[in-house]
Amino acid sequence: MKVAALQMVSGPDVAANLATARRLLEDAAAQGARLAALPEYFCLMGQHDRDKLAVAETDGDGPMQAMLATAARELGLWIIGGTLPLRAAVADRVRNSTLVYAPGGERVARYDKIHLFAFDNGRESYDEGRVLEAGSEPTQFEAEGVRVGLSVCYDLRFPELFRAYAGADLLAVPAAFTYTTGEKHWSLLLRARAVENQCYVIAPAQGGRHPNGRRTWGHSMVVDPWGEVLAELPEGEGVVVAEIDAARIAQVREQLPALGHRRL
User: Fold this and answer.
1) Given 57, 153, 199, 235, which residue is catalytic?
2) Is 11 in contact with 45 (CB distance < 8 Å)?
3) Paired sense of beta strands 200-203 and 215-217, if any
4) What is the distance, to the nearest Å, from the Cα of residue 49 to the centroid of all Cα atoms in its chain?
5) Residue 54 · residue 44 · CB < 8 Å
6) Where are the alpha helices (DSSP H) in 138-237?
């Protein structure tokens, strides 16, 4: 299966972001991708964290979800819809949700980000817990024989989540890594998750300077089960495409059967 990681530099205009996402999905389909993954917050990078509350959708209804379903159906793609804000049970919180659509346009999976990012180095400060309600359940789906485990951004630092997906063929990590943390840890962690789980990793990211002044690291990539980066885009909008090869997964797992050696 050919897969595509889509990189964006989203801003505060939801309609403009959706139009960009649709254009990139069309590009991915034109390059022969069967599965395309959008980055975290593909639909909105607002001026303030609380801007998510104003555009949050009810599960199953809204223009962001409609765009994903329509694009999947019209382009014949499996789409991992990065993340978008869905209303939570608590009025002043949202879920940061990945929605997956099959080529017929039907939704087949939802994953809510479990680990909420907090960072403060004296110059930059973030705390997602002020706006987000954390999810709790690992989520997988199958696309044409490829088993995919879902995660979002900061989840990448918690290998126990990915162990819940042991045996998966592909791990998806839509993200909006800060430039500061991404420069040091993004590629390192993605390759580690690929190597330890002996599977492919697809990592679509935000990558560039956003209207709110934030700079994200980018470097959207696809990594193979041996930790080799197959395709990568450092910065700016674009699409990276690579092939998921079942034979390669089997080869790696046969020559180094580490998954079978687990004791804990």
Assistant:
1) 153
2) yes
3) unpaired
4) 19
5) no
6) 159-163, 179-197
Each residue's pLDDT tens digit, 205-226: 999 999 999 999 999 999 999 9
Catalytic residue among 40, 57, 235, 237: 40
Indicate if 124 belongs to the active site: no
Collect all residues with Cβ–Cβ distance below 8 Å to 121 and sequence separation of at least 6: 180
List the catalytic residue out of 43, 57, 113, 235: 113
153 catalytically annotated: yes
Going 176 to 180 to 183 to 189, the CA torsion angle's sign is negative
* Each residue's pLDDT tens digit, 41-52: 999 999 998 999
> Nearest-5° angle of CA 85, CA 179, CA 23?
50
Q: Which structural domains are found in the chain, ordered by start? A: 2-261 (3.60.110.10)
Q: pTM of this prediction?
A: 0.97
**Token pair in block for residue 216:** 């994200």
